[in-house]
Please model this.
Amino acid sequence: MQPGELIASDQGARPVQPSDLTAAWAILAEVMDPEVPVVSVVDLGIVRDLDWQAGHLHVVVTPTYSGCPATEVIEGDIREALEQAGFRAPNLERRLTPAWTTDWISDSGRERLRAYGIAPPEGSTSKRSLLGESPVIVCPQCGSAHTEVLSEFGSTACKALYRCVDCREPFDYFKCI
Ligand SMILES: [Zn+2]
Model:
């Protein structure tokens, strides 16, 4: 799309401003994951791309886990937030390749997970499969590396349930994929 072309908005068609995409990213940075309400869809890395197509905002979304029931909710939240901000009828494209990986979670997203009491994914998926080691999961409460897995499935299929051997607190670990 060229500058000066018209976009659809609640105020009717108007010219595209260079700042519109920045504004759209800022809106999406406030759309939280429904399962972990402290990290946004941008922090999680599931919003892959934003641009203009035929006067409508085009949003590329890669779901975290295929079959994750939250995906439909997330897409609805993204659409609603953009429409409320005046981006009329945004186009959402669900892109499954390349598949989402926990490597795409931003550093600030990892910090927010930890502050929320969820151990963020450790290490990089590619590095770990090369070394064939299981990662050390650090307790988000006390920082101890002395932890044990209680269940491969925590509060959702995307998380595993761990317990800290030192402070005895159970916690969710955001599984690395
Ligand atoms: Zn602990």
About this structure: Helices lie at 19-28, 70-84, 107-116, 125-131. The two ends are 35 Å apart (CA to CA). The chain has two domains: 20-100, 105-174.
